[in-house]
Amino acid sequence: MAADDGAPDAKDGGKQLLHLVFGGTLTKLDKVQFDDLSKLDIVGIYPNYAAAYDAWKDAAQRSVDDAHMRYFIVHLHRLLDPEAA
After folding, report:
1. CA pair distance 35, 39, nearest whole angstrom
2. What is the pTM of this model?
3. In 1-85, which ranges are E strands?
4. Which residues contact 28 (CB under 8 A, 6 or more apart)?
């Protein structure tokens, strides 16, 4: 049985493909180096890429007027299980 967002339900044997969405103010536009790590915006952890993308898009649109503010999607499932295909 799938969750409401279309993601597999781990309780039913489906695989969770966890994704982290976070952002912060960059020191320079051409580098991924954050100005202040204590001020990172942790948007959340999501069960699939589609849900993470929606959260990323929402956060990025809220900060569209700040050129130094960037949001990212991290594929946590790849870090947790690097040998998986």
Report:
1. 8
2. 0.79
3. 19-25, 41-46, 69-75
4. none
